[in-house]
Amino acid sequence: MVASLDNVRGLTLAMSSSAFIGSSFVIKKVGLKKAGDNGVRAASGGFSYLYEPLWWLGMITMILGEVANFAAYAFAPAVLVTPLGALSIIFSAVLAHFILKENLHMFGVVGCILCVVGSVGIVLHAPKERKIDSMKEIWHLATQPGFIVYSCVAVACVLFLIFRVVERSGHRLMLVYIAICSLMGSLTVISVKAVAIALKLSFGGSNQFIYVQTWFFIVVVTICCLVQLNYLNKVSKCSGIWIHS
Question: Cα 65 to the chain's mean position, in Å?
Fold first, then answer.
């Protein structure tokens, strides 16, 4: 299959994003460890990491990665960009091995290999993206019954985990934090794709920011990212890098 120019651009941006994001997990982990030695740990509800320069360096690196990831969605299909995020596991695992002295077990190594194989397979067989000319088209797709039901279920699960499960056992079960991030991430992908397309169309001369739907997706992206950031920090403090990256 011959990849389109837009797919190549999206692929390059997505891989760059994985490198930045994978590195940021390690940098933030170091910052969280230092902050935990001088204050209340993030896993225990503390925010002392906000005063740690290394954590902010990791955050800046992550932002650069997310910007590249955001741009990738403007050029390539979400089905191509999203799975490539798994490559950040490779970068995180390698850096964690040398910097944090976290050793991967055999299953971890196999998992990394599967990530690479899966990503290559997706890149080779990525579909051609459907042409969208207006935010109204995206809104029409996003308001289909199936997606609305999924969104409601995802939000309900997140709220249940945050207000019921986390309070009781979140600090002991990091899978709760990971579940929250994953559920919010599924909504983030769709919203980021919508905003990226809106920007691409706007730069092309068709202003999409006159539509309320565009701002709705921007709000969703902001909320989802803040929630994910908060719980990713908690995961970082109570687990190895390779588990949550």
Answer: 10
